[in-house]
Predict the structure.
Amino acid sequence: MGILNNIFSKVFPSAQATVENAVDTVKDKVENITASVKDTVSSGSQQVQEKVEQSTSNVDVTSILDNLAKKHPEALNWKTSIVDLLKLLGIDSSLDARKKLAQELNYTGSTDDTAAMNTWLIKEVMKKIAEKGGNITHLFS
């Protein structure tokens, strides 16, 4: 699993459970497939995908992360710092991990300029969370 998917699994915990259940369900259906039910399974897979999308839409990410931050022993500025966001989520925040995340997200700048990379990463991760259905609009007001 990539770092971004790891972030998603922490931010969208119910979606992660839905995905895991969906994968098991689809595997079971595929094992029992016959030529006459291929269309049924295809329809079932589409319904599973719709269920996953519904479970992630309009998740109040800011509240989830604020609640995590209240319980964290360090004061973290997760809204503007990729290092602090990763720490908050219990994900490796080392330079190597951030470089891997940058590669995963197709960062085109120099990874030697860590300040620029980190600034880009936090913006890109928040953008991806929003695209996934996370409500982060009040972060930018």
User: Anything to note?
Assistant: Confidence is low (pLDDT under 50) at residues 15-23. DSSP finds seven helices and no strands in the chain.
